[in-house]
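Entry — protein

Goal — fold tokens:
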Amino acid sequence: MQGKYDYWFSYHQHTSISNGLGYWEVMTKFEDYIDYAIKHHIPAVTSSEHGNVIMWIKRKELAEEANLKYVHSTEAYVTMNLDDKNRGYHTVLIAKNYDGVKEINRLSSASFNRKDGHFYYRPRILFDDLKETVSHGNIYVTTACLAGALSQTYKSVEEASVCKQWIKLASDYKDNVFLEVQPHIDKEQKDYNEFLTQVASAHGLKLIAANDVHALNPEHDRLRKIIKKGKKNSYDDDDKFELWCKTREEMVDTFREQGVLTEQEINDALDLTVEIANQVEEFELDKSHKYPHLYKNPEKEFQNRIKQGLKDRGILDLPKEQRQKYFDRVKYEYSVYKGNGAIDYMLSHEDILNAAKEHGIKFGYSRGSVSGSLIAYLCGQTEMDSIKYNLSFGRFMNPARISLADIDVDSWRPDQQWIQKWMLTNPKWHAASIITANTYGLKAAIKVIADGMDRYAGKPAYIQSIRNQIGDDGFIPEQLYEDHQQLIDDARKVVGVIDSFGRHAAGIVIDTNTIDDAMGIQTISGWDYPVTQVSMKEIDHFNWVKYDMLGLDNVGLISKTAELAGIKYPTPDSEFIDFNDEEVWTSMRENNIGIFQFEGDRAGKILKDLFSPQTLTRIKEKVPNVKYMDLLSLANGAMRPSGAGFIQAVTEGTFKDNGHPALNEFLAPTLGYLVYQEQLMEFLVKFCGFSEPESDLVRRGIGKLFAC
């Protein structure tokens, strides 16, 4: 007997994302299921991760890049009562449409709540909440595997009421809740399938086929079992089942061998998987900038703060001609902020800094391109006067730059924790730290495979000796490969597989719209605050706003030193500091400890050579009024990946003649070399006729080229 379709669709399948809850069980990646779907002419793809929707946006994008329909799903853990001490019944949830996506994300987010009882060893969904969600008609539900509610209760007198509640849920929503049958050749599965066929017949319910896929194929299954063995993981004898992708023909054959379902039931259960996939609606995600909206009239608020900044920074006291330069720059920057819709971002960012300043927290003077914004200086978001130091605003923001504003802020590490917690608990918005995935590199993969192989198990020193012979670039000596070929070949297949999840040390996403449904949030061990279920790249791509609050001990060192010395926290505007004090700069030759980004041996040698009397003499012959801070910046440029000739030129004070007086004058502060990004942009504008936005496009293009 033939079914309606020559393929079926697998909803109940996992990728290595499912490893994130602490129980390692999968080495297959989502890309593998995409390749499988293409090969077998299946027009859609999904993965239902255990207890989460992590990286769902990335999976959607990968699917659609392959011209496949993305189906949003998860294998949730459902509890009947939050007070019950159980780990929840396995239940597969499938989104019918975008409303269903948001509802599943919202359920998943709530399941991680560790304070109200939802989370108990695992993130748990409350049955009543599931029932309410099903009633909206936006999701499908399957009763999942042998760890599902019906399987766990149908033989129990004590839990008969639970079984009845699930059957009633399916009976009340026959077009949305289905009884999942699996083809495993196992007595427990056979008995359960017989029960499900009886329930389906008695209540007019539909059976849906699944295989609880934990591996792409038998080879992936072999490797996952090796790793599980090494990690000493086991669960309900699941390793005796064939938990890999099967074609429709293979599913039919296995169901026949199992001998429970009729031919009609087998084909109907497989056909239903396709019919559901056909009913799933495709959707587009909003890529607009998601700046938090905190003020009814943000423009007026922004203008007031700029005016106050002009007064506080002493700009209004400057001579008229000089003052006009600031006014013109403010006018231009304001128009760009307004045109890019970034006023709300600048306001919210300043609010964060102001809250910390009221708490006595000090910040680094500026990091990155925001130094070029005069308005950021006026509003206290940087201590760098971009007019005074001739810094480019266009690198930070310009009319052609459609990417989000991004400001990195440094504070002392203990203060960083206070700021992050304030941000994550502020009632004015929704916020979460950003998830990070911990994946296997080659050396880690060798260890995790070796731990499960008899030849290496229990021999950590032996395993480490193998890993020590592998280069940091992944180079494997020929003899080492010959001696351990199977281990190395297996390990290579595990590279890139997710082992666990953590949080980004600095990044926090903020939105005045809800994020538990739009992206999904969770909790992780050791952090009492929400963490996103989507990664940094997903957040960037869909223009949620992240705020980077970094921890830097140098800021604390400066702050505490100033406090002990009885002086104000020093800034570039501090009149009591001589930034050209030669004794300070030459002292760096003797000891580079505590100098930010210059504490290593290589950096110390560069400083020693650069600030030698001979080098300084050569430089001053060309640039009599050279600023030592510029030289330090030049040394920082030499620290980056660069040619030996450039490093030598810097440390010896040798100038490069560019063959044109104007160009030599322009590049004099950097010894005739084009070094900085802002310098590149200024060169393109002054010498090549580019507009500032065009120069920024070139700068970014070069940056991407060198990042490849």
